[in-house]
Amino acid sequence: MSKDTKEMFKNYVPEILEFDEEIDGCDEHKIRDEHLSAKEKILKDFQEKQANKRVYRHPIRTENEKT
């Protein structure tokens, strides 16, 4: 820091700011959490459905194979 800057901030005391959600309007994190929890629930339901789903494969066609 230069000499002028040191003198300028010599008596500076940082003020502590209080966070007020209504004034600042920062409730986006809550919306994000709601979306993430909804996504987690949807994924869980989908995985449960996939776990119960049985997949039957068709037999491999062997028309060209000589028996």
Written description of the protein model:
With 67 residues, the protein is mainly α. The protein has 3 helices and no strands. The protein has helices at 3-8, 21-24, 28-52. The longest helix has 25 residues, at 28-52. The mean pLDDT is 81.
Number of helices: 3
What overall geometry do the principal axes of the alpha carbons give? elongated
Q: How far is it from the N-terminal to the C-terminal residue, by CA?
A: 90 Å
Q: Assign a percent range to the helix content.
A: 40-55%
Order of helices and strands: HHH
Largest sheet: none
Low-confidence stretches: none
Kindly summarize this structure in a few lines.
The chain has helices at residues 3-8, 21-24, 28-52. It is an all-alpha fold and 67 residues long.
Write the layout of secondary structure elements.
Elements: H1 3-8, H2 21-24, H3 28-52
Keywords:
67 residues, mainly alpha, 3 helices
